[in-house]
Amino acid sequence: MEVEGKTKYAEEAFDFDDGRQQKPELDDDGRPKRRGTLLTASAHIITAVIGSGVLSLAWAIAQLGWVVGPAVLVAFSLITWFCSSLLADCYRSPDPVHGKRNYTYGEAVRANLGSVKYRLCALAQYVNLVGVTVGYTITTAISMGAVKRSNCFHRNGHNAACDESNTINMIIFAAIQILLSQLPNFHKLWWLSIVAAVMSVTYSSIGLGLSIAKIAEGGNVRTSLTGVTIGIDVSASEKVWRTFQSLGNIAFAYSYSNVLIEIQDTLRSSPPENQVMKKASFIGVSTTTLFYMLCGILGYAAFGNHAPGNFLTGFGFYDPFWLIDIGNICIAIHLIGAYQVFCQPIYQFFEGWIRNRWPNNTFFTKEHVVSLPVVGDFPFSLFRLIWRTLYVILTALVASIFPFFNDFLGLIGALSFWPLTVYFPVQMYMAQAKIRKFSVTWTWLNILSSACLVVSIVAACGSIQGLVHDVGNYRPFRV
């Protein structure tokens, strides 16, 4: 693949009309010259990090309180930044400045840790991707329902019974995703990232502004140094489980390691990519942390110990209803596109594996060109239609059975935080830098990794307990 790519780009460097060689605009790997800078990389990181995870931060701070809550946010940001710095050195291997480029997170793991660790990394990545698509289905359905409820409250008063069915909203969302999933080159829709970035910043800013307005109004809001109070708000066991679950919610808010190598691959070669990426990670993570602190702390100050799990759909805010509607519409638009960003790697992996396994089976390999109005010639595959439709239906079914925002986000954050944010970056760095076993650096890096493993385990336990508890009181597929 690499040789073919170099040949292709080398041919494009010639002007075949007069035989003269044009000025080559290629990088050391034969690919078109990368133009990314510190500014663009920082913007990509902020876009990748700020997302639906911000919606649960007020609830997470409410479980932990004024002291532990902000401290945990800072701790996660420091760990994420530090491990991102280690990962930045693994973009090239074996040398972080002059080595061979690794274009994806998985390639970096394979180059530094071998094929066995690569398979484990791939498993963690795909489990995370599937979990995120289910989580986005839940979040979008809740936001779609919140728009209807907001208008119902506006018409009938805040005490009206304005229940909405998440099942119907999930069916609508799944129908949209089935259509979008048939696009074979969805990744080429470059404007998707711009739309997602604008939407995520918009709804986060709306939530922040509404929190400030609610604080300014005053009112009897009860907060405490330790968060929700045992015996008043929750029982002792609920306090423990909610504390664990809140760690998963915060971990989910900081997950972006999956795309760090891909972001680094956009940077120009000089100055060295790892140096620029470390600065970009610092700018991106610190900017995001400031934004998260504002949303989490002001959200807690606005709602107190009764902060809703999602501060735009939990109806601590009722007015202005049109602004709440805009916020939730932005969430839906963002996640409709983001779902495709996360499911496309799953589609490509499975379809590639199937075609390699049965290369002579025309059902798997053959495509038909269909002429459609407006769209024009469209490549159609019956296999792609069936399997991608089944995947979307499966994620919608799981979301319908477990439509619990905080629990599911906490579980996704717990499952992805330790392996993808901490373990593999630490292991790759130690392998590349040839850190001697039982040295001071080796010891404390392993202590950090082990501590983060414990955090992921307790966060997963808290989220699973929450799911089990909520499922016991829930009737799925209620229309």
UniProtKB/TrEMBL annotation:
An example Gene Ontology biological process: amino acid transport
Major localization listed first in the record, in broad terms: membrane
Lineage, opening ranks: Eukaryota, Viridiplantae, Streptophyta, Embryophyta, Tracheophyta
Keyword Repressor: no
Annotated segments matching region Disordered: 1-33
Cellular compartments annotated: Cell membrane
Cellular component aspect of the GO annotation: plasma membrane
PANTHER family for this protein: OS05G0424000 PROTEIN-RELATED
InterPro entries: AA_transpt_TM (IPR013057)
Transmembrane segments: 38-61, 67-91, 126-147, 189-213, 280-301, 321-342, 385-405, 411-431, 443-468
Family per record: Belongs to the amino acid/polyamine transporter 2 family. Amino acid/auxin permease (AAAP) (TC 2.A.18.2) subfamily.
Protein name: Amino acid permease 6
Basic and acidic residues bias locations: 1-31
UniProt entry keywords in alphabetical sequence: Amino-acid transport, Cell membrane, Membrane, Symport, Transmembrane, Transmembrane helix, Transport
